[in-house]
Amino acid sequence: MARQVADAVESLVALWTGAAEAVTPRLSSHQLKALTAVRRRAELNLTTLAETLGIALPAASRLCDRLEAAGLLERVTHPRNRRELQLRVTPQGRRALAEIAERRSASLAGVLAAMTPAQRAALEHGLHAFRAARAVQPDGEA
Q1: Is the pLDDT of residue 30 over 50?
Q2: Which runs of E-coded beta strand occur in 1-142?
Q3: Which of 2, 12, 116, 142 shows the greatest Cβ crowding within 10 Å of its Cβ?
Q4: Cα dihedral: 132, 134, 137, 140 (round 10)
Q5: Quick one: pLDDT at residue 98?
Q6: Distance between first and last Cα of the chain
Q7: Are 33 and 53 in contact, with CB atoms under 8 Å apart?
């Protein structure tokens, strides 16, 4: 059973990452994580982004350099602290994130449409059971 779930997760990951790879400019998983983190937190700075992603500050800076060069991210002076820079997703970055979300939803909808109603119901039931079982597991034991 664990092997079947692992195979299903691999298929889902391929579907999920394929949506990000289909947008222009093409986004790596790290770039997508960074852009998503900045969109979720309005006043994110470079240090906090590095901590959020679990990467070193120089790596986060290079990542932001690439996103900025692609027009997806901008660094602006913090309104209350002129010595600090804030990261912001640009309108182009928001469009890229929206396109990725739309592609992901369409891909998932296509897979779900190929399933019978009974299969979809069984999947829903199984996912609920999985989340419930995972919720009672101590961290790191799943």
Answers
A1: yes
A2: 73-77, 85-89
A3: 12
A4: -170
A5: 94
A6: 14
A7: yes
Residue 93 sits at the vertex; the CA angle it makes with 81 and 109, to the nearest 5 degrees, is 135
What band does 82 get if pLDDT is binned at 50, 70 and 90?
confident
Average pLDDT, the chain: 90
Q: Look at residues 80, 49, 44 and name the one whose alpha carbon lies nearest to residue 63.
A: 49
DSSP 138: P
d(CA 89, CA 96): 10
pTM summary value: 0.80
Whole-angstrom Cα distance, residue 60 to residue 28? 14
Q: Are 44 and 87 in contact (CB under 8 A)?
A: yes
Query: Is the per-residue pLDDT at 43 higher than 90?
Result: no
How far is C-alpha 28 from the chain's CA centre?
10
Tokens, residue 111: 């897979």
Nearest-10 Cα torsion for 96, 99, 103, 109: 140
Question: What is the mean pLDDT of the segment spanning 119-123?
Answer: 95
Task: Pull the structure tokens for residue 140.
Answer: 């790191």
**What residues contact residue 19 under an 8 Å CB cut-off, 6+ apart?**
100, 103, 104, 107
